[in-house]
Design goal:
Layout lengths: L1 H5 L5 E2 L1 H4 L4 H4 L1 E3 L18 E2 L9 E6 L5 E3 L11 E6 L4 E14 L1 E4 L2 E3 L4 E5 L6 E6 L10 H12 L6 E7 L27 H7 L4 E4 L1 E2 L10 H12 L14 E5 L6 H16 L2 E5 L12 E7 L18 E4 L9 H24 L7 E4 L7 H13 L3 E6 L6 E2 L12 E6 L26 H13 L1 E3 L5 E3 L11 E4 L4 E3 L10 H5 L3 E7 L12 H7 L6 H7 L5 E3 L1 H8 L10 E4 L7 E13 L4 E5 L14 E5 L13 H4 L5 H4 L8 H7 L40
Parallel strand pairs: 2-22, 15-19, 15-20, 16-19, 20-22, 26-29, 26-32
Antiparallel strand pairs: 1-21, 3-14, 4-5, 4-6, 6-12, 7-10, 7-11, 7-12, 7-13, 8-9, 8-11, 16-17, 17-18, 23-24, 25-31, 27-30, 27-32, 28-29, 30-31
Helix pairs in contact: 6-7, 8-9
Length: 719
């Protein structure tokens, strides 16, 4: 990192100066940053603002479903609970904002949401109140040749039978996926998808409401609506329609889009919109996660390269862990500040995997897949050095810089110092630092909806809960099972000798490793599907051979990073002697897995360790039944640092599962009752003593809680 620090640009971000800056200093820039008065959406509304312009007098057809699955038309006054779906007409440029979860199919015309133009297919859309509410915008199309599935075609026939004619026809179907029951596990998030109905929205709800979806007429203080600002739309148009560059051999260069900016500038939202645009153009796109604490597809604590083939229509916790990463590296922390060298190595490895894939696609004559890189929001000091290292590794062809017009000292990448990198610059106005993605906590405007502020740890908690309670249908549809506690899940029983225990930098004595791992959240590591050039590619038979007599010393060394310290099982057995019988000794490595030979799969909860029989019981999220299970490639687990060292831990809501979650929010004693009522909206009179060994209270006194290292407090400006 010292070499990068020496090249760090000392210039700061000044929009006025940048407009006259030579292109040799800033790279090939398009759309220089110009301050504007329009604030980008999502934005926090201070006064009730009209969000839905759809007229309730438009034709509506309510659809019911019999027990045999037959669809039929319901009376307009039928209760909402009886509705299976609603079909309604829209005029061009009409908007509809809603809260909840539903399936949407555009039967005629098109509808834009999340920069995805939906027409003819069913899209599942998630619109929690903690994030900007999804807005549907109707658009007409000249060609009415929409391909519909059987159910959508039947609905369109029911619609036309009512002699209804509209420019755009939309069907919204009720969904029971289980995520709406998140409050049964974490009561603090009970109102994310289900809220009270405001007085000005009652007519709207009665007209087109379905179970699990509530239309919203106006938004008040603290609520947000997902819209695309003008400069965002221009940047998206340029990025998604710009012709591809050619290399020296006149071959098209795969576009690589890096999105950078400080925290709270809307990088993730813009990246999601950009992915949807690119999926519509290329059919698939790679998404590289480089923000350890705010992942999009992978679990927190990992850097991942994921292939996206469908539009992304929800916040991160609605699709965490649903797609196996093409390649991933596990760090087990939420920030790279304690190990920046490994972080830079992980990014470099993911970039190399992407380049290898591009070369293989070009060799067989296929179209190169673009890549979107969402960077972390740490843009000062060491964070800026890591951003330089990222740009040097991924070599972006387009660099999207989010900036705040009110902040004139934001850092700026000087691409003249990055060898072989001359990206097209795109500028977007980010969100103001004083605005939060989740609105003002506790604000309840005239709409009566409670808005919850989602901090970074809340986002990680939601992602982990979504991952741990995930499930699949037989057809491969993603659902959640919030009613089955983790303690009731059937664990994966793995022999201790068949796993490598990577302990990272934790200095745990070998005799205490099993105690240190028991009951913790670990990273599950498997053999990589895409080994690096020159690396050994493990066959299925070789992987099976690892389980013949446990992972051998040679295999553990090949699967670990160079320089890792190992407790060789052969040495332990030699010391025990031949008369000691079978020795159940785990293969312990004080280091991290190899970035080329292994890949991170998912998180797992070590529910128990049976030393007598020599087995580890792992609660692993289920894998999709329609793809080949990667479980056979699992070779070990990684124990990351604890929460005091920015590690990933089991959410307390998962520990309180099994009926204790809501009761745990009550008062177990007279201590902190008033403070707890101020921060916990759901109060009960049942004490937490019914959930043994677990407490959500704040202990008092010296030494009552773990100390957390906060280095560099006097150098906050450089953090």
């Amino acid at each position: 990192m010292d070499a990068l620090a020496s090249r760090r640009s000392t210039r700061v971000f000044t929009p006025k100066a940048l407009r006259t800056m030579p292109s040799s200093q800033t790279g090939s820039q398009t759309g220089s940053p110009t301050p504007r008065t329009q604030s980008p959406q999502p934005r926090s509304m201070q006064e009730p603002v009209l969000a839905t312009t759809w007229d309730a007098t438009m034709p509506v057809v309510a659809i019911g479903q019999s027990q045999t699955g037959e669809l039929h038309v319901l009376d307009s006054q039928a209760p909402i609970a009886q509705r299976h779906a609603v079909i309604f007409g829209m005029q061009a440029n009409d908007t509809l904002v809603f809260q909840g979860i539903c399936d949407i199919c555009v039967l005629k015309g098109t509808v834009r949401m999340y920069e995805h133009e939906s027409s003819g297919q069913w899209d599942r859309v998630y619109s929690p109140v903690s994030h900007p509410l999804v807005s549907l915008q109707a658009q007409t199309r000249a060609d009415d040749g929409v391909e519909r599935d059987a159910e959508a075609q039947h609905m369109y026939e029911l619609w036309t039978a009512q002699n209804n004619e509209c420019e755009v026809v939309v069907a919204m179907r009720a969904v029971d996926c289980g995520l709406e029951q998140l409050g049964s596990v974490a009561p603090a998030y009970a109102s994310l998808f289900m809220g009270s109905v405001a007085a000005d929205s009652e007519q709207l709800v009665q007209a087109i409401g379905v179970p699990g979806m509530t239309p919203v007429r106006t938004v008040a203080a603290g609520l947000q609506v997902l819209q695309t600002p003008e400069d965002w739309a221009q940047a998206l148009d340029q990025a998604s329609t710009m012709p591809q560059r050619l290399d020296d051999e006149f071959e098209p260069i795969a576009p690589v889009y890096a999105v950078a900016g400080a925290q709270g500038q809307g990088k993730s939202t813009f990246s999601r919109m950009l992915v949807n645009r690119l999926v519509a153009r290329f059919g698939r796109v790679f998404y590289m996660e480089t923000d350890l604490g705010q992942s999009e597809f992978a679990a927190p604590g990992a850097l991942a390269l994921t292939m996206v083939t469908a539009p992304v229509l929800g916040p991160p916790f609605t699709h965490t862990g649903r797609t196996e990463a093409y390649h991933a590296a596990y760090m087990g922390v939420v920030t790279p500040k304690n190990d920046p060298d490994r972080y830079a190595a992980c990014v470099q490895r993911l970039a190399q995997v992407y380049r290898d894939h591009v070369r293989s696609e070009r060799a067989r004559g296929a179209q190169a897949v673009p890549m979107v890189v969402n960077t972390q929001g740490w843009t000062r000091g060491l964070g800026l050095d890591l951003l330089y290292a990222l740009c040097q590794s991924v070599a972006p062809t387009h660099f999207v810089q989010a900036y705040d017009p009110a902040n004139s000292d934001a850092p700026l990448i000087d691409f003249a110092t990055v060898e072989g990198c001359d990206p097209q610059m795109l500028w977007i106005t980010g969100m103001s630092p004083d605005r939060t993605q989740g609105g003002d906590a506790g604000d309840a405007g005239e709409s009566g909806r409670r808005v919850q502020r989602l901090a970074a740890h809340d986002m990680r908690t939601l992602s982990l809960l979504s991952l741990m309670y995930s499930a699949w249908t037989a057809q491969g549809t993603a659902v959640w099972n919030m009613h089955k506690p983790l303690a009731a899940r059937i664990p994966l029983k793995v022999p201790i000798c068949d796993l490598v225990f990577w302990m990272g930098e934790e200095d745990v004595p070998p005799s205490q490793v099993l105690r240190a791992v028991n009951g913790t959240l670990v990273g599950v590591v498997c053999v990589a599907r895409a080994p690096g050039a020159g690396a050994h590619e493990w066959s299925r038979d070789e992987i099976r051979g690892l389980y013949a007599d446990g992972v051998s010393d040679q295999a553990a060394a090949a699967l670990s990073e160079p320089g890792a310290r190992m407790l060789l099982r052969s040495h332990v057995r030699a010391r025990m002697g031949d008369d000691a019988g079978p020795v159940l000794v785990p293969q312990i490595v004080y280091g991290m897995p190899s970035l080329t030979a292994t890949t991170f799969l998912t998180h797992a909860l070590v529910r128990s360790i049976d030393v007598r029989s020599g087995h580890v019981h792992l609660v692993i999220p289920p894998q999709s039944p329609v793809v080949e299970s990667p479980i056979y490639r699992v070779v070990g687990i990684v124990k990351g640092p604890g929460p005091s060292a920015f590690g990933i831990d089991v959410p307390v809501q998962a520990m309180l599962d099994g009926g204790f979650a809501e009761r745990a929010m009550g008062a177990s004693s007279g201590r902190h009752t008033a403070a707890r009522r101020r921060r916990a909206p759901m109060e009960t009179n049942v004490g937490i003593q019914e959930a043994p060994y677990v407490s959500v209270e704040v202990d008092e006194g010296v030494g009552a809680s773990a100390a957390r290292a906060r280095g560099g407090q006097t150098r906050r400006a450089l953090q």
